[in-house]
Amino acid sequence: xxxxxxxxxxxxxxxNLVRAGVRKILEAHRExxxxxxxGDGESALRFLETTPTDVLVLDLTMPNTDGFEVLQxxxxxxxxxxxxxxxxxxxxxxxxxxxxxxxxxxxxxxSAVQDLVAAIEAVTQGRAxxxxxxxxxxxxxxxxxxxxxxxxxxxxxxxxxxxxLVADGLSTKEIAARLAISTRTVETHRAxxxxxxxxxxVARLTxxxxxxxMLDTP
Length: 218
Prior knowledge:
2 domains, 6 strands
């Protein structure tokens, strides 16, 4: 890490041993100052209100207020704060949500010894930092998103209307009445939707519509 004013870091993790290990890694570098440790999300948010902090090293699974909510609220309240997720979760769902909520970096705990200091340096310089396995997940997420957008683009406006109403829980007769079409036409549109989207049930259609933000409320 380049010389200069020490970066002020807050550690948020509900496991004492993890925090102790992370602190030990960081204290070997004088360019980093650990200004605090907390074991839950609400404590992290309260700490940020009272103590100047450059980087929040944040676990995602904590009691009371989880890391995702901390991400959302901290980013909304502290514009200059960098947030580096440090977690054991490598699944696409966790990565995608953390990135959506504004994470500046995403590091797996088993990479902390090698990569944590470099990750802090990167995010404080305005660059993103992701563990190599997470980079692969991000690539897959982007490919999946492009595929889903391509699938949506194939739907006609009427098929989108039917999809929304199916996902809203309306029956075939109710959809037909709402759109002033026959029940047979509704069934045809639903069959086309399942074929185009590669889905085989109303439940899957509903999940797809919710995931794509096609409903006013989930």
